[in-house]
Structures are given as structure tokens and as C-alpha cells.
């Protein structure tokens, strides 16, 4: 996949390792809190972890500058993938165009994986809205991760 130009200023392309250094220092506060609560990772550690795992990795660009990274990492469970997205505050500049194409990327993930599942911090409103828009099913909040805070498990397929 080359660059998928979604508007004049917004695009999605395959992620590059150097995108981590651009996105990590500017990560949204809600994403920062979530990755600390789940894994005790810094933003750079979380992006590096997701980038190095087998799976699909994309970068969202605004005016050719990375504003978010997303994808799905292969789960050890039979045929599953774990969708993820970490963004900067600048992601709001591409929200509408990205939303228009989000379901296409989720379908691409479902072509690769039999099912998708992961957890999202109950405090991460923007991520929850995006996941619901994409059609994920939400399950009751459970204590999860390094901090054992409430997280929703979300699933699709399988």
C-alpha cells in the first residue's frame, strides 16, 4: 500500500519506524494515561512495542506530518488480532476524513485476522467513540493491566 490520500491534507500510509519519534512526544493525554495504566509503558515504548509485533501498522498524516499510528497486532489466540491506535492532539484535524475510512481499515484487519479484540481504558472517551463508530462490541468493564483500572474489552468477528 502506498499513500492513501483521504483529503488534500490528510493521508494514511504504512508506518515507518521513524514515525514513533514524531508521534510519541506529542501523544494525547488520554492515550498516555491508558498505556501507563495497561502496561506501564511510555508512549515511545508503547509505539515501539506495537510496531515490532507481527501485524499491520499504519500512520495517519496531516500535511505530511505523522499525527497518529494504528494497526492490529497478531494475538497468540487462534487467528486473532489486537487493534490499536495512539494519536497526538493533532488527530482532531483529520477526524472526519479518518472516520470516513476507518471501517475500511477495520475490514482490512478482519481479512487478516479471524477476530479482533483488545481493551480500552473507560476514561478514553475519544477512543471509545471511534471504536463504537467502527462497529466493535463492548463488554462489561473489568479490572485490567498494570494498574488494574477499569477497561472495556471490545471485540469484532470470530
Which helices and strands, and how do they pair?
Layout: E1 4-5, E2 10-14, H1 19-23, H2 29-39, H3 43-52, E3 55-62, E4 65-74, E5 80-87, H4 95-112, E6 115-121, H5 125-134, E7 137-138, E8 142-144, E9 149-157
Parallel strand pairs: 5-6
Antiparallel strand pairs: 1-2, 2-3, 3-4, 4-5, 6-9, 7-9, 8-9
* Quaternary structure classification: single chain
- Rg estimate, integer Å: 14 Å
Structural class: alpha+beta
Structure annotation, total helices: 5
**What is the average per-residue confidence, as pLDDT, rounded to a whole number?**
94
Walk me through the structure.
This is DUF2833 domain-containing protein. Pfam families: Phage_T7_Gp13 (PF11090). This protein has helices at residues 19-23, 29-39, 43-52, 95-112, 125-134; strands spanning 4-5, 10-14, 55-62, 65-74, 80-87, 115-121, 137-138, 142-144, 149-157. It is α+β, with helices and mostly antiparallel strands. The protein has a single domain, classed as Gcn5-related N-acetyltransferase (GNAT) (Aminopeptidase, 3-Layer(aba) Sandwich). Strands 1, 2, 3, 4, 5, 6, 7, 8 and 9 form a nine-stranded mixed beta sheet that branches. A hairpin with a 4-residue loop joins strand 8 and strand 9. It is globular, with a radius of gyration of 14 Å.
Amino acid at each position: 500500500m502506498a499513500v492513501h490520500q483521504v483529503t488534500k491534507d490528510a493521508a494514511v500510509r504504512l508506518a515507518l519506524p521513524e514515525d514513533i519519534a514524531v508521534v510519541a512526544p506529542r501523544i494525547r493525554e488520554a492515550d498516555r494515561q491508558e498505556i501507563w495504566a495497561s502496561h506501564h509503558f511510555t508512549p515511545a515504548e508503547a509505539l515501539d512495542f506495537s510496531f515490532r509485533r507481527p501485524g499491520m501498522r499504519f500512520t495517519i498524516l496531516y500535511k505530511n506530518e505523522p499525527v497518529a499510528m494504528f494497526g492490529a497486532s497478531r494475538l497468540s489466540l487462534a487467528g486473532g488480532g489486537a487493534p490499536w491506535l495512539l494519536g497526538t492532539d493533532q488527530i482532531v484535524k483529520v477526524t472526519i476524513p479518518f472516520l470516513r475510512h476507518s471501517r475500511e481499515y477495520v475490514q482490512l484487519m478482519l481479512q487478516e485476522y479471524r477476530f479482533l479484540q483488545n481493551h480500552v481504558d473507560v476514561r478514553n472517551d475519544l477512543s471509545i467513540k471511534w471504536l463504537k463508530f467502527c462497529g466493535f462490541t463492548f463488554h462489561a468493564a473489568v479490572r485490567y493491566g498494570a494498574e488494574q483500572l477499569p477497561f472495556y474489552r471490545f471485540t469484532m468477528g470470530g
